[in-house]
């Protein structure tokens, strides 16, 4: 009997993030309440996240909300944003570094395998670095695994790939 499998990863679409950046910069330029302020979105080194700049914390939060809306418009989840960073302020400016969550940690991979072992005992899971491989004899079972993972409320984004 044939074995079917796929990988569960925690990644984001890099070209789409570039589009989100351009759209947010354009929206900031067009908004009247941001005229004459230092409001901007810059890339962190190696395009690993955004540096959100504003006149105060309220403006920084407004820009982060704009990023979330643009992600939603492009069918991406805002869970890719790591909003745990501290707000910084100096010289009439406020900023926050918002790195992207990329890669599946061991702890998160264990959460996924535990959930799948409880919900789908016939599916075999294997942690492989920063991804989890799911294997089954039935494609239908793998599709139900994807549905289960999409319904689960994890605080990190999930993507499926490497179908075999």
Automatic annotation (TrEMBL):
One of its GO terms (cellular component) is cytosol. GO terms for molecular function: nucleotide binding. Keywords: Nucleotide-binding. Nucleotide-binding protein. PANTHER family: UPF0234 PROTEIN YAJQ. Belongs to the YajQ family. This is Nucleotide-binding protein FBF37_01785. It comes from Candidatus Nanosynbacter featherlites. The lineage of its organism: Bacteria, Candidatus Saccharimonadota, Candidatus Saccharimonadia, Candidatus Nanosynbacterales, Candidatus Nanosynbacteraceae.
């Amino acid at each position: 009997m044939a074995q079917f499998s796929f990988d569960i990863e925690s990644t984001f679409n890099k070209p789409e993030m570039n589009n989100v950046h351009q759209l947010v910069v354009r929206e900031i330029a067009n908004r009247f309440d941001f005229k004459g302020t230092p409001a901007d979105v810059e890339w962190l080194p190696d395009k690993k996240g955004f540096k959100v700049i504003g006149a105060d914390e309220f403006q920084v939060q407004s820009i982060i909300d704009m990023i979330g809306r643009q992600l939603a418009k492009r069918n991406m989840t805002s869970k890719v944003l790591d909003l745990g960073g501290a707000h910084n302020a100096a010289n009439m400016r406020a900023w926050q570094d918002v790195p992207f969550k990329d890669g599946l940690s061991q702890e998160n991979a264990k959460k996924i395998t535990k959930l799948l072992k409880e919900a789908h005992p016939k599916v075999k899971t294997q942690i492989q670095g920063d991804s989890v491989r799911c294997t089954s004899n039935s494609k239908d079972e793998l599709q139900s695994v994807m549905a289960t993972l999409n319904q689960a409320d994890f605080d990190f984004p999930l993507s499926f790939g490497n179908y075999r």
